[in-house]
Design goal:
Elements: E1 4-8, E2 12-13, E3 18-25, E4 31-41, E5 50-61, E6 73-77, H1 80-83, E7 88-96, E8 104-111, E9 116-122, E10 128-134, E11 138-141, E12 154-161, E13 166-173, E14 182-187, E15 197-200, E16 210-218, H2 224-231, E17 239-244, E18 253-256, E19 264-267, E20 271-274, E21 295-298, E22 310-315, E23 323-331, E24 334-342, E25 353-357, H3 359-364, H4 371-375, H5 377-389, E26 419-421, H6 439-442, H7 448-461, E27 466-470, H8 471-477, H9 479-482, E28 487-490, E29 496-497, H10 499-510, E30 514-517, E31 525-526, E32 528-529, E33 536-538, H11 575-579, E34 581-596, H12 606-609, E35 616-617, E36 628-635, E37 646-652, E38 661-662, H13 679-682, E39 686-692, E40 696-700, H14 712-715, H15 718-730
Parallel strand pairs: 2-24, 25-27, 25-28, 28-30, 29-31, 30-40
Antiparallel strand pairs: 1-3, 3-22, 4-5, 4-23, 6-15, 6-19, 7-12, 7-16, 8-9, 8-15, 9-10, 10-11, 12-13, 13-14, 16-17, 16-21, 17-18, 18-19, 20-21, 23-24, 26-33, 32-33, 34-35, 34-36, 34-37, 34-38, 37-39, 39-40
Helix pairs in contact: 8-10
């Protein structure tokens, strides 16, 4: 683990509110802490540099090391319902996904300290076993009944008869009769643990990977036919507890539908709303047939909260300006920084301009281990060397999987990661973090937070007053949050949004607000939020889109809100309906330029391109050395670009050897595109402008790398001057933007 690491309980705070910082420190020294205002986060010595301003030093603290509790599980305390059992049967239906690496508990009622109890598990060789307490000094393994196969549904159980002291361990494929059962029967001495706690999908030192449904405990040894009937939902005598995972899917509760109401809870957010053993493909939404979605997918690397103690707490002063801030930590030779954002007091905007910080997108990408890091040793060496040479952030998520990875990565069992949380160190949400090495090709190589700071550094350099707001406030407060602002600016990559966020932006825009979309691949994926714990976000990558993994068939609906997930385009709200442009193509992290359209200088929006020396815009920049690059958005009237929108400039020079590809939803076959045009014509960024009702307007650049061009030549360049003209006019309440007659 990193010697000094931390996270905060929230990413945004208002004046008068308290933010808490959780820290783990393995240096053995006291931790010094300082709050700073962040003006620039680019470590590139050729760029604006890292610039911070001191705010306040906090009292140093004695902080010790800590671990990360990776792995999801369920637990419940059954009390005397369990401790008084003599004979019993433990039953579960499973779909294992990572067999043959280490023991994986299914149901565990085991006390290793007393060598008592029993654990139904898959051993390290893939055999179903029952681990039991034998005497006072050791634990034994019961020989398994059958070697299991990954991704196949099975009923598994162990039944113990206290009278005969016989343990039966058995497995049966779903749909098979008892004649197909594989069993082993043996003598077992089982001491009763003094506690009534039972764990699901976890044991003393390991976790289960796979789907698990309908775990049950009975107070007698069942026959095979009784187990089959009980697992199918029939009433069988002796039931102590039956957790039905089809109940309360959006929550962390495990609902017991048995006679004793012995409810439990899941920990570290295993994935719910998953197809179970009875799913027949006729329903795709768990709300319509919850009984077919009675499975939970547990993973040994799930994480939603490190649970570290609070090391520092800070209440933002009531006169603190809105802006970008961070906690700087140091202990011995180790340093850490934890960015956060101060938004204005509720209902008290302090400027005409607001910058929307994409905290949910930051969280979704949190701890992304890039494919290049995983597969390319040279790339890793280059990254480490550049981070050291620039004095950038030295830790890469690919080297520290112990903090949990991002929703752009896979679980250890090969399934996609659907939940992300900011309640853990997110190593790529750091001042000075470099995403892509090789300055000659990729410039500063920044994405997300440090890349968005290029825009804030530009606003500061040009003397604009602005407030910072974040996704959190936008989702909670809606259009009321935006109403006081004349102009709303996005950052470089506002990709992930809830329905409430899109509703708020549309209401603001159509109520006379001016939207400046200054990125690419925005408004693309639909997300859902955990309403039990702030900071936990869900994404289902279903049916199309540029994506790191694909959701399993039938698992496209979010567990948190029950709504269809995936692309906003698949939900009837393409990005073009919001900002006039939408994701069309992606390449490597390199940039090109825009060329002004022939009719732009005679259009209603000619004022935007006035003063340009030529037709080329932005053939330079700290993001891939060009203003139009990496991920590109184009106008498309069939997807919602207004008919009166003006495309002022389009990018070009996106060489096939980059390589550049259309997004999957645009490519129907190897020769046919959705738009009916050649693929090469769709690989472009469209700089677009249009008026909206009530004197509103939208300006969109359609490129992730656009803001990286702003700081070039000390913020004096054609991209900077163009944006300056646009923002001056769009942030002026007196400026008129009348929609043209139809």
């Amino acid at each position: 683990m990193i010697p000094l690491a931390g996270y905060s309980d929230r990413l945004s705070v208002r004046p008068g509110e308290t933010i808490k910082f959780h820290v783990a420190n393995a240096t053995g020294k006291k931790v010094a802490a300082e709050i700073v205002r962040v003006r620039s986060a680019d470590a590139n010595p050729k760029g604006p540099g890292i610039k911070t301003e001191p705010v306040v030093a906090l009292a140093s603290a004695d902080v010790g090391p800590n671990t990360v509790p990776l792995g999801s599980y369920g637990h419940a305390d059954l009390g005397t319902h369990l401790t008084t059992l003599e004979s019993f049967t433990l039953v579960a239906t499973i779909w294992p996904t990572r067999i043959g690496r280490k023991a994986q508990p299914i149901l565990s009622w085991l006390d290793p300290r007393q060598s008592t109890g029993v654990m139904l598990a898959i051993d390290e060789d893939g055999w179903l076993t029952a681990q039991v307490g034998q005497g006072a000094s050791r634990l034994g393994f019961v020989a398994g009944s059958a070697k299991l196969v990954e991704r196949q549904w099975l009923r598994v159980w162990c039944a113990y008869d206290a009278t005969t002291r016989k343990m039966t361990v058995a497995s049966l494929p779903i749909g098979a009769s008892a004649a197909n059962m594989t069993t082993v029967e043996l003598d077992a001495a089982i001491g009763q643990p003094s506690h009534g706690e039972i764990a699901i999908a976890a044991g003393p030192s390991s976790s289960f990977n796979g789907k698990l449904e309908r775990p049950m405990i009975f107070s007698r040894a069942l026959t095979a036919n009784e187990v089959i009937r009980a697992a199918a939902g029939a009433t069988v005598d002796g039931l102590v507890v039956c957790w039905d995972f089809s109940k309360e899917i959006p929550t962390s509760r495990m609902v017991d539908v048995g006679p004793n109401a012995l409810h439990g809870a899941v920990v570290q957010r295993p994935t719910r709303g998953m197809t179970g053993s009875s799913w027949n493909g006729r329903e795709m939404c768990w709300r319509h047939a919850p009984e077919q979605y009675a499975a939970i997918h547990f993973h040994d690397d799930d994480i939603d909260d490190c649970g570290w103690p609070v090391a520092f707490a800070w209440t933002a002063p009531k006169d603190l300006p809105s802006g970008n801030y961070a906690l700087l930590l140091s202990a011995a030779d180790a340093t850490e920084n934890l960015p956060f954002f101060v938004v204005p007091a509720k209902g008290k905007a302090t400027a005409q301009i607001a910058v929307l910080v994409s905290t949910y997108t930051y969280t979704i990408y949190g701890n992304m281990a890039r494919p290049e890091w995983i597969a390319n040793a040279k790339w890793r060496e280059e990254w480490l060397a550049q981070a050291a040479a620039w004095n950038g952030y030295p830790h890469n998520p690919g080297a520290h999987v112990e903090y949990g990875l991002s929703t752009y990565n896979f679980h250890t069992d090969g399934s996609g990661i659907a939940y992300a949380s900011w309640r853990r160190p997110m190593l790529n949400l750091r001042i000075g973090y470099i995403t892509y090495p090789n300055e000659a090709i990729r410039g500063s190589g920044l994405r997300h937070y440090p890349a968005d700071m290029h825009l804030c550094a530009w606003l500061d350099a040009k003397g604009y007053a602005y407030d910072i707001i974040t996704d959190v406030e936008l989702d909670r407060e809606g259009a009321a949050l935006l109403k006081p602002y004349t102009a709303l600016l996005t950052g470089t990559h506002p990709e992930y949004h809830t329905p409430a966020m899109l509703d708020a932006i549309e209401t603001y825009r159509d109520g006379g607000g001016r939207l400046l979309y200054l990125g690419g691949n925005g408004f693309y994926w639909k997300i859902a939020l955990d309403h039990e714990k702030t900071g936990v976000v869900e994404i289902r990558r279903g049916e199309g889109g540029i994506r790191a993994w694909a959701a399993e068939t039938g698992e496209y609906y979010n567990a948190f809100d029950g709504e269809y997930g995936g692309l906003w385009r698949r939900n009837g709200r393409p990005p073009q309906k919001i900002a006039g442009v939408g994701f069309t193509a992606q390449g490597n992290f390199v940039g090109s330029y825009y060329r002004v359209k022939p009719d732009a200088r005679s259009s209603r929006a000619a004022w935007i391109v006035e003063g340009l020396k030529g037709d080329i815009i932005g053939n330079f920049g700290f993001s891939g050395h060009g203003a139009a690059g990496f991920e590109l958005d184009r106008a498309e009237k069939r997807l919602g670009t207004p008919s009166h929108a003006i495309v002022l400039a389009s990018s070009e020079g996106h060489k096939p050897d980059a390589p550049w590809v259309l997004v999957p939803e645009e490519q129907l076959s190897h020769i046919v595109t959705w738009a009916g045009e050649p693929a090469e014509k769709l690989i472009r960024a469209d700089m677009t402008f249009f008026e909206t009702p009530n004197n509103g307007a939208v300006f969109s650049v359609g490129s992730i790398t656009f803001c990286g061009s702003l700081p070039v030549n000390n913020f004096n360049n054609d991209v900077s001057s163009l944006l300056d003209r646009v923002l001056k006019r769009l942030s002026d309440p007196a400026a008129r933007f009348d929609m043209p007659a139809a």
